[in-house]
Structure formats: structure tokens, C-alpha cells
Amino acid sequence: MAKRVVMSEGVLTPKFTIIRNSKSLNYVQDLNFPLIVKPLWEGSSIGIRRDSKVQNFKELKRKLEWLINSYGESTLVEEFIEGEEVTVGVIGNENPHVIGMMMIKPRIGNQRDFIYSLEVKRNWREEVEYFSPPPLSEQALCELSHSALTAYEALSCRDVARLDFRIGTDGKPYFLEANPLPGLNPETGDLPIMIEKEGIPYAELILSILDSALRRNRLTAKSRARV
Ligand SMILES: Nc1ncnc2c1ncn2[C@@H]1O[C@H](COP(=O)(O)OP(=O)(O)O)[C@@H](O)[C@H]1O
Ligand SMILES: [Mg+2]
Questions:
Q1: pLDDT in tens, 26-46
Q2: What angle do CA 41, 44, 45 make, to 5 degrees?
Q3: Domain spans of the chain, in order of start
Q4: What is the value of pTM for the model shown?
Q5: Is 190 close to ligand 1, i.e. is its CB under 6 Å away?
Q6: Residue 164: alpha-carbon gap to chain centroid
Q7: 166 lines ligand 1 (CB under 6 A)
């Protein structure tokens, strides 16, 4: 649903279909391999593993059956975008703004096959490297920022969100998903890691989120956050 909403505002997202059981495999005929198979309603890489990228129908069928049996829910099958991965933090309500962007790069294996999977998220210290700001051109950063803000507003996000993108072969950002309640663990959360790399103290991040929520409810705090 999120993909449909952002598409309606012109944000690019990988071509996709929803599959309810492994007998409806013919729905993928308009998609080009490689594909990624994800549970429709999860988050935090639940159901997204190292082998979630599939190259042909045989692999797709095997992965679909595993997902449907394990999670008992429909699956989202998308074209796999082999380019760089960037996550974008947005804060605010009336005038949302980007508070940071972070590129997530594999330390092990190649970029083309990289999936920020459950296994990688559990072992992130060894397996990934984070770059904030991402080493991308001004134009690419500008497009990412524009797509993130458009998606944030289209989805009626409030106070804070983190939006995930991959860069396509055309150099454009493709929306993967929005995290409207991004993890805030000070050591392991992607948003806190991004903020720390930008030299912003964790307390400032929390105060800024609180500030947005207070303003939205027409309340004021005694002191203002700076982010
Ligand atoms: N279409 C795609 N192309 C390439 N990688 C993808 C795609 N969809 C998901 N991924 C990989 O899987 C990871 C998790 O998927 P995502 O849609 O962000 O769900 P989650 O809520 O579990 O984080 C992404 O961070 C990315 O590495
Ligand atoms: Mg994600």
C-alpha cells in the first residue's frame, strides 16, 4: 500500500506484485529477474534473508513456499535493485526536513548481491560499513532528499521517519519502504548511527522528535531542540 501511495506522487519504487500462494506464480510474468521476495507485513528484515534474491522461477517458488509456510502471509515480490542502498531520516510535521542520509555498504561480498538482511542486521559491526553523508553526487543527494520528503508527506508520516532507498541503474532513487517508527536504540538504531556520524548528540535527536510531537499537539517545551 505504501508503494502505491508514493507512486501516486511520482516517487519511483521497484516494480512489484503481491502473491498470496505459490500457485499464483504467473503474476510475476511482467517482472524482470533478479527479484526479491519479502513478507508483505513485516519489518526489521523479518523474513528477509541472505538468499531472498532469486534469479529464476525455481528459486522463486522455493523461497515463496518457505515464506508462506513460515509467516502465513502474502508476499511482496519486487524487482531487485542492485545499486547502492541509502536510508534517509526526516523530522517534522508542517515543514518536514531531512536530518541526514546514510549509505549502507557491505564489507563482505559485492554490492550487486547485497541485502541488508536479518543475518546482516544481527552482525552489522562485521558485515556493513555506514557512510554519512553518503559519497554521492549533489544531484543524487538532492533527488534522494526530494523523494524522501515526498514519500514522507504522501504517507502522512508524523514527527519522524526513516525511508529506505536503493539507487537504480538510471542513477535514480527507488523507494523500498518507510519506517514510521524507526528504531531509536542509541547504539544499534540506523537513525542514531546516522546522527552520530553527523556529529549530532543523541539527546538532540530525541529532543527534536519530542519537539515535533509537542508542536503537533500545540504544546511547548521550556527549551528548544536545535536539530
Ligand atoms: N527491491 C529491492 N532491491 C534490492 N534490495 C532490496 C529490495 N527490497 C529490499 N531490499 C533489501 O532488503 C532490505 C530489507 O528490506 P525492506 O523493504 O527495507 O524491509 P525491512 O522493513 O525489513 O527493513 C533492504 O534494506 C535492502 O537491502
Ligand atoms: Mg528497511
A1: 778 899 999 999 999 999 999
A2: 80
A3: 2-79, 85-216
A4: 0.95
A5: no
A6: 2
A7: yes
Class of domain 2-79 as given by CATH: alpha beta
Name residue 55's amino acid: Q
CATH 2.40.50.140 is right for the domain spanning 85-216: no
Task: Spell out the residues 6+ positions from residue 211 whose beta carbon is closer than 8 angstroms to its own.
Answer: 221, 224, 225
Per DSSP, which regions of the chain are E strands?
16-19, 35-39, 53-54, 75-79, 85-91, 97-106, 128-131, 160-167, 173-179
Asked whether 43 lines ligand 1 (CB < 6 A), one says yes
Closest ligand 1 atom number to CA of residue 87: 25
Centroid of ligand 2 to alpha carbon of 176 (angstroms): 7
Which is it for strands 35-39 and 97-106: parallel, antiparallel or unpaired? unpaired
* Residue ranges in the chain modelled with pLDDT below 50: none
Check pocket membership of 14 for ligand 1, CB cut-off 6 A.
yes
